[in-house]
């Protein structure tokens, strides 16, 4: 475990713009698991996409329209959802908000 960051404090980490106009910051990661915070302005869209990683998401703030494999639900602060590997999914921010996503294994494309 030597050298692996296992604690993250509020406000740590720099926000990085995402290709779809939102922002993210990697909170923590190991080879097996990663936590990433995403910030959205009202109307912001996380475009439909898929990836081999299993994703678990927690709505830390705001309301989102979440689509997974063609099914859409409105999720609000305190709600959560899981995206199984390779399913097409995306979100739309109905108000400004934040999602905290966990990915297994980690998303190498998110690491500098």
From TrEMBL:
CDD domains: cupin_KdgF (cd02238)
Gene that produces this protein: kdgF
Species per Swiss-Prot/TrEMBL record: Mesorhizobium escarrei
Residue ranges of domain Cupin type-2 in the record: 38-95
SUPFAM superfamilies: RmlC-like cupins
Name by which UniProt lists this protein: Pectin degradation protein KdgF
């Amino acid at each position: 475990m030597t050298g692996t960051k296992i604690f993250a404090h509020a406000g740590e980490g720099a926000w990085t713009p995402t290709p779809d106009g939102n922002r993210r910051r990697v909170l923590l990661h190991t080879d097996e698991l990663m936590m990433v915070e995403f910030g959205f302005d009202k109307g912001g869209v996380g475009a439909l996409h898929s990836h081999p990683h299993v994703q678990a998401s927690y709505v830390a703030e705001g309301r989102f329209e979440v689509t997974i494999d063609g099914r859409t639900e409105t999720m609000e602060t305190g709600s959560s959802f899981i995206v199984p590997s390779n399913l097409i999914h995306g979100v739309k921010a109905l108000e400004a908000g934040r999602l905290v996503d966990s990915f297994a294994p980690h998303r190498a494309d998110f690491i500098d």
